[in-house]
Specification:
The structure is a single chain. This protein is of the alpha/beta class and 613 residues long. It has 2 domains: 101-195 and 410-568, Rossmann fold (3-Layer(aba) Sandwich), CATH 3.40.50; 198-405 and 597-602, Dimethylsulfoxide Reductase, domain 2. A hairpin with a 4-residue loop joins strand 16 and strand 17 (511-515). Bound molecules: iron/sulfur cluster (SF4).
Length: 613
């Protein structure tokens, strides 16, 4: 084990009661700690009707629980199996039967039901329709459903139509089809759930380094001198990261957590796949910096100021590969420590301490999540973290870089450009327009607008004013059950595991991975996600069959490869678990930022947000 950098970590400051609970084996007393063994038994029980199919999904499918996206149970970064409680909890929604008709007769109360309850009701069985003043959903044929949708889209102003993709459940092929079709129908209003955080998480990296994508691979975490968890609790959202942190600690990494909330599970965690850790736990967090909400930019500027004053920048890297250093350092000198401490909520001494530890690190990884990407000044915060990494040359090298943590296939939605066209609306703007009665048609694929950080009442008003809503999905969500402006049509799509010819998704490591068709589903009327937009387009105008001529998933991938040069090789993916990793294991190796004119990354100092927020 390499010696850990920096001073001896302080006591994590747990109360007497917490210390007692942390001393118990298996972490049995810890609040919200995942109960893996219980979850495993629960999952077996939940899938008792279809155990072989559930098992095949686990063993052969690409996980859609979060953005790590391994194939089957194989871990990409290290030895051992890759499986967590999130995946087990999700399994039922892929392996269950369709919902019975008795549930659909009166759906008014389901509009207020919890999304998890609805997800477990059963799969969407067939096309369903609900007209204004009706209380329930009625089954119709695909022909009738497409006919109604086609007629309404034909009559609507394309600028008053909108499409939305819930990236987590949609394949790259499905997201690509939505983009092509919506653009083809002249609709500029298109967006995905990556809008609610992740897109800022990578856009900031794109502005500094040239490419809107995570810079590194998961294995870069192993043995990095310093790992910074910034505004994220991966134990909740990306559980397998905790296994990597355990291994990293074993190899001498120091782990810093920067977050307004000190999460107990990051102080110590019981990694189920590592025997010693599963019994006694692993002390993870070495340093904790309790920034105030939105105080991250001020904190970073305090650290940058210290580094600048103590010759802590990597000038060799900066001179050769970066611009903007003078514009960064000059104003830093003028910043008053009192303002930075007030802005960050952290003392000068703490910022200096972080700078000291960071200066000692020869490698550093920055992981950040919604605590950064959903804050008001998210883009500035991401650019600030990227600048902090760049001033010490922590990009493009082994065990260095930045990994924004998002949902499954968020990166795919970004890569494929599932964003508004020229003059088009983001999803937030679509909701606002709909609430004002200015959106006639809204088609959403696996996108639950209630998961958006938008006032619930505004979303309800929007949903109930749209003339035609089309909800494409595998399972129900509450947005489907709100009364229509005129008509709601729900179309059943296949899960990622059912699609004939397989499908691909893109992970946080930029791996575009093939997931095969796994036979065994019982929902006969569901169609592949990529096929449904094409069927709608053909209904609007038969000539669209020529424009979207996909006969199978392989043809969609071939078209996708032509449209997205980074995805070169995706058309050739046919075997279980095979992948392309665009950009290689890490971007900017040899410190070449060739997407930026001049080939140098751009250091930036952001405006400090007002403290009152
Ligand atoms: S950590 Fe994420 S990708 Fe890995 S098994 Fe869990 S949910 Fe799936």
């Amino acid at each position: 084990m390499a010696p850990r950098i920096g001073p001896e970590p302080r006591d994590p400051g747990l109360s007497f009661g917490q210390k007692f609970l942390h001393a118990l084996p298996f972490g049995i007393g810890i609040r919200n700690k995942p109960r893996y063994y219980l979850d495993y038994l629960k999952s077996m029980w939940e899938n008792i009707k279809n155990p072989m199919y559930a098992r095949a999904i686990l063993r052969r499918g690409v996980c859609d629980g979060c953005s790590l996206g391994p194939a089957g149970l194989v871990d990409d970064a290290t030895e051992g199996k890759h499986l967590c409680n999130l995946r087990l909890q999700q399994l039922k929604t892929h392996a269950m039967d369709a919902v019975g008709d008795e549930v659909l007769g009166d759906v008014r109360e389901l509009a207020d039901a919890h999304v998890n309850y609805l997800r477990k009701l059963g799969r969407i069985p067939k096309p369903l329709v609900r007209y204004r003043d009706e209380n329930g959903l009625t089954a119709i044929s695909w022909e009738e459903a497409l006919d109604t949708i086609g007629e309404r889209i034909k009559k609507a102003d394309p600028r008053q139509t909108g499409w939305y993709v819930g990236a987590q459940s949609v394949s790259n092929e499905g997201a690509f089809a939505v983009k092509q079709v919506s653009r083809g129908l002249g609709c500029p209003n298109l967006d995905s759930s990556a809008r609610f955080g992740y897109i800022h998480g990578v856009a900031g990296l794109g502005e500094l380094f040239g490419v809107p994508a995570p810079t590194s691979s998961l294995k870069d975490l192993l043995g990095s001198d310093l790992i910074v968890l910034w505004g994220t609790d991966p134990s909740e959202t990306h559980p397998l990261i905790l296994k990597y942190l355990h291994i990293a600690k074993d190899q001498g990494s120091r782990i810093a957590v920067i977050d307004p909330r000190k999460e107990e599970r990051l102080v110590k965690y019981w990694v189920p796949s590592i025997l010693e850790s599963s019994v006694f736990g692993t002390r993870l967090m070495d340093d904790y910096y309790p920034v105030r909400r939105g105080g991250d930019i001020a904190f970073i500027q305090g650290v940058l100021k210290t580094l600048a004053e103590r010759n802590g920048f990597d000038h060799e890297f900066i001179n050769a590969h970066a611009t903007g250093v003078d514009d960064l350092t000059r104003p830093l000198r003028q910043l008053a420590w009192g303002d930075l401490a007030k802005g960050s909520g952290v003392s000068q001494a703490e910022m200096e301490k972080f700078a000291g530890i960071y200066s000692a690190a020869k490698s550093a990884m920055f992981l950040y999540g919604t605590g950064i990407t959903r804050q008001r000044h998210s883009l500035s915060a991401v650019r600030s973290i990227a600048t902090l990494a760049a001033v010490r040359g922590m990009v493009g090298k082994k065990r260095c870089g930045l990994l924004p943590l998002g949902q499954s296939n968020d990166q795919g939605a970004v890569d494929l450009g599932v964003v508004p066209g020229e003059g088009g609306f983001t999803v937030t703007q679509m909701i606002k327009a709909a609430a004002e009665g200015k959106l006639q048609v809204f088609c959403t694929m696996s996108g639950n607008l209630f998961e958006a950080p938008i006032d619930r009442n505004v979303v309800i008003r929007a949903l109930e004013r749209i003339d035609l809503r089309v909800h494409i999905g595998t399972v129900f969500d509450p947005s489907m059950f709100h009364p229509p402006g005129d008509v709601v049509i729900i179309l059943p799509s296949m899960t990622r595991y059912e699609i004939p010819g397989g499908c691909t998704t893109t992970s946080v490591e930029r791996r575009v991975r093939f997931s095969p068709e796994i036979p065994g589903s019982s929902v006969r009327e569901a169609k592949p996600d990529w096929q449904i937009p094409a069927l709608i387009a053909a209904q609007v105008d038969l000539a669209n069959q020529e424009r979207f001529p996909w006969k199978d998933a392989a043809q969609v991938r071939a078209d996708l490869e032509k449209s997205v040069p980074r995805y070169r090789g995706v058309a050739g993916l046919r075997e279980e678990g095979k992948f392309i990793q665009w950009g290689g294991e890490r971007l900017y190796e040899k410190s070449v930022f060739d997407s930026i004119p001049g080939g140098k990354c751009r250091l930036r100092l952001e405006d400090l947000p007002p403290v009152t927020e």
